[in-house]
Write a structure and sequence with these properties.
With 221 residues, this protein is of the alpha/beta class. It folds into 2 domains: 100 residues, Translation factors (Elongation Factor Tu (Ef-tu), domain 3, Beta Barrel), CATH 2.40.30.10; 106 residues, Rossmann fold. The chain contains 5 helices and 11 strands. It starts with a strand and ends with a strand.
Amino acid sequence: MNGTPVAVESVREVGPDTIALELETPGDFDALPGQFVLLRAAPGVDDQTAADEDDVVMRHYTLSSPSVDETFELTVGIDPDGELSPWLADLDGGETVHVEGPFGTITYERDRDVVAVAGGPGVGPAVAIAEAAHDAGYDATVVYQDDDPAHVDRLEAIEEEGVAVEIIGADADDELAEAIASHHGEGQVYAFGFEDFVRAVADAIDDAGGDSDEALIENFG
């Protein structure tokens, strides 16, 4: 199997049908918040290193931890009918998966104020960027649209420390546009989510007099 083998340190539930997968950081792995990895695994195969390529499933996941010093985190939405995510959710820790990367030019280098906008599973990288900014002494805002929010504990923790957090219902598109209009000028805008969501974010930025071309937007497809 291609990629670097890494140990699964832990798997924990962080919201409805959502887990945080904590992985051992391999040597020479220098990733920044906003980047993503390609995770390879062979669900149901005991020896991952000897898995046949026909058994391997690959998915991209964006980092959801603000640093990668000893471990790093991926936030995974669980699709009950998916090939990989239900298997990942059932891991106990100690297993091995393979990763490639990091990839991606959307990065945060702890050098400016940020406005992190997230839809659904995009909350992972959004909260990581907000945490990194706050830890570096910069202002951060999180705007998050989801009826069943994940990483609530982390969002509450940074809100208590002064980070502005707005959680908006999935159908409250006008409220999302109003939040973006209120905050888009407060820092570098990052947006993470599926295509319809990030398109709506870009439109809201432009409608508010901003320039969506200056936003750093990751479309999950």
